[in-house]
Amino acid sequence: MFLDALSTPYFESMKDRVGWLIEFFADYDGQQIDELMNNLFDRWVAEFQEIELSLGVAS
User: Fold this and answer.
1) Rounded CA separation 40/13 (Å)
2) What is the signed CA dihedral for 47, 52, 58, 59, rounded to 10 degrees?
3) So where are the chain's domains?
4) For residues 33 and 6, what is the distance between their CA atoms, to the nearest angstrom?
5) pLDDT reading at 33 higher than 60
């Protein structure tokens, strides 16, 4: 059953995405990845804060 799951269309598409991710980050060092993730996280936090404020959710 487990081995069958490794050949599903979903799993195959996940392997494609992993390949893309490896190529995308191939020239990044650890610090560059950290900076990218921090920038993305900061942006996501700001977006969610705007949504909470628009819904009247207290922070």
Assistant:
1) 24
2) -20
3) 2-55
4) 29
5) yes
| Local structure of residue 27 (DSSP, 8 states) | T
Cα(57)–Cα(29) distance, integer angstroms: 39
The C-alpha angle with vertex 26 and arms to 22 and 29, in degrees rounded to 5, equals 120
pLDDT band at residue 58 under the 50/70/90 scheme: low
Tell me 26's DSSP state: T
Q: Which two tokens stand for residue 13?
A: 């598409």
The answer to whether the CB of 36 falls within 8 A of the CB of 28 is yes
pLDDT band at residue 47, thresholds of 50, 70 and 90? Answer: confident
